[in-house]
TrEMBL record:
InterPro entries: Diverse_substrate_MTase, Methyltransf_11, SAM-dependent_MTases_sf. It comes from Legionella antarctica. The keyword rRNA-binding does not apply. Pfam families: Methyltransf_11. SUPFAM superfamilies: S-adenosyl-L-methionine-dependent methyltransferases. The lineage of its organism: Bacteria, Pseudomonadati, Pseudomonadota, Gammaproteobacteria, Legionellales. It comes from the Bacteria. GO terms for biological process: methylation. PANTHER family: METHYLTRANSF_11 DOMAIN-CONTAINING PROTEIN, METHYLTRANSFERASE TYPE 11 DOMAIN-CONTAINING PROTEIN. One of its GO terms (molecular function) is S-adenosylmethionine-dependent methyltransferase activity. Residues 61-156 form the Methyltransferase type domain. Belongs to the methyltransferase superfamily. Keywords: Methyltransferase, Transferase. Signal peptide: none annotated. This is Phthiotriol/phenolphthiotriol dimycocerosates methyltransferase.
Length: 249
């Protein structure tokens, strides 16, 4: 998948921070600056994932930071002590580093199963819509537990095929991380996808050649794609977890 997300970064014509997630649409409208309104639903997914923890003055690592827009939201609105965004895509990280304007924020290339982070140095690990691409969820969760401080949190959301949800839950249980909250947020994600579909289709048609469009439409989960239809028929679910490291072992 690295080559594909490198392609996405290379096709970022704005040269700025871009959200890649599916978004979250509900009745709770968080206050945003005017310039952030076009990205409201993408931002609201981040807000939903971290809403039950205090981010201010905390050390945050985001694994799977993409092109950096989620990190900018956290830095600008949540006031962490520090933020490190990590992604496998070197081109996405290059873009983030070129645009970085935050003294307490940095971006680096790295693998989810071998995080370039010291042991017990992080208060919160954020992971949104990324883990379904990983070779080993078990290795990733082991790394999360390694880098978290005692009583630190993992704020996590992602999609899974319905047949793979038990496997995900078993991996979380085996990791030793304690589940504080687990929610199915498929309806809110699907509402966002439905609302954003025409906008995303127009962007895809304007940015990608014919040989790329079908794959990008499916990854973007626009109307009529396999992923979108999977949410409609129940084959795909979108889950949100808040996990905590409660022991040092």
């Amino acid at each position: 998948m690295q080559w594909l997300y490198n392609r996405f970064a290379s096709n970022n014509k704005s040269g700025g921070y871009v959200f890649l997630n599916y978004g979250y649409k509900d009745q709770t409208a968080i206050p945003l600056n005017k310039e952030d309104e076009p990205n409201r639903y993408f931002i609201q997914l981040y807000q939903r994932v971290v809403r039950d923890i205090d981010v201010e003055n905390k050390d945050i690592v985001e694994v799977g930071c993409g092109q950096g827009a989620g990190g900018v939201f956290l830095l600008h609105y949540k006031n962490p002590r520090s933020y490190i965004g990590i992604d496998l895509s070197d081109k996405a990280i290059d873009l983030c580093q070129r645009n970085s304007k935050f003294a307490n924020g940095q971006w680096m290339q790295g693998r989810a199963d071998a995080l370039p982070i010291h042991d017990s140095s992080v208060d919160i690990v954020v992971n949104i819509e990324s883990s379904h691409c990983y070779h080993s969820m078990d290795k990733f969760l082991c790394e999360v537990k390694r880098v978290l401080r005692l009583n630190g949190y993992m704020a996590f959301a992602d999609l899974r095929h319905s047949s793979k949800i038990d496997e995900l839950d078993n991996s979380i249980k085996a990791s030793g991380l304690h589940v504080l909250h687990r929610s199915d947020i498929t309806p809110q994600v699907l509402d966002s996808l439905t609302y954003l579909s025409d906008r995303r289709k127009a962007h895809i048609n304007a940015t990608y050649s014919n040989i790329w469009r079908r794959a990008v439409r499916d990854i973007s989960a626009v109307k009529g794609s396999v992923t979108y239809d999977g949410f409609i028929n129940g084959q795909q679910k979108y889950l949100c977890y808040l996990l905590q490291k409660r022991n040092a072992e």
